[in-house]
Amino acid sequence: MALCEAARGGSSLLWPRVLLFGDSITQFSFQQGGWGASLADKLVRKCDVLNRGFSGYNTRWAKIILPRLIRKGDSLDRPVAVTIFFGANDSALKDENPKQHIPLNEYVANLKSMVQYLKSVDVPEDRIVLITPPPLWEAAWEQECLLQGCKLNRLNSVVGEYAGACLQVAHDCGIDVLDLWTLMQKDTQDFSSYLSDGLHLSPKGNEFLFSHLWPLIEKKVSSLPLLLPYWRDVAEAKPELSLLGDGDH
Where are the transmembrane segments (predicted)? Predict the structure, then answer.
């Protein structure tokens, strides 16, 4: 009974959150070896990493659903970091894939709108990271398209235009950006091994993304304490003295 009373007296333990918002490359990121899973592993006992990836989505749809994912509330409940990772679908060719295609100028406006919305719910610029779409390996993706009974519906040069627009939005808004499209093609290297089907990330591509994203996330979460004491530090006689504090250690 005394223990129950002590437990009731403890303060509620709020877990900070990192929000990953994007398309299928985010949705699939919690698979084994995925970049989101690696991020969650890195931040275990410091914050929760929430996967809000939506396969096939573009920025037009993302802008609509973002207010359903995060609202203005208690300052302790706001994400400590948010990634916005769209463009792989927006950059689909209009003639071949009109449902997912978003014109470049609207893509820019949608990204800016999402950043402005986050600011309106008290998520400041220094907590946001934009990620450009990765490059497209056309030969492999064309095979995927043919298997689905359609023509090649994306071009790497066009994806590059959307990546460049994403960079410009980050510059205009004063936020961090990971230029995945450029980094994967640095020094004209063969980037095909980073992609599983020409569009989505392979295990090597997931590792590459995580290795470049982590420094941007780390500086946003570096002040977060380890939640609850290390087991050797728990008071043996009265563990509640160790476990019912503010959670920091």
Answer: none
Is 212 marked active-site?
A: no
- Parse the chain into domains and list their residue ranges: 17-223
Q: Which of 41, 126, 172, 197 is catalytic?
A: 197
Residue 41 designated active-site: no
Q: Is 249 a catalytic residue?
A: no
CATH architecture of 17-223: 3-Layer(aba) Sandwich (3.40)
Give the pLDDT of the chain (249 residues) as one tens digit per residue.
343 443 445 567 788 999 999 999 999 999 999 999 999 999 999 999 999 999 999 999 999 999 999 988 766 568 999 999 999 999 999 999 999 999 999 999 999 999 999 999 999 999 999 999 999 999 999 999 999 999 999 999 999 999 999 999 999 999 999 999 999 999 878 899 999 999 999 999 999 999 999 999 999 998 888 888 777 888 888 888 888 865 555
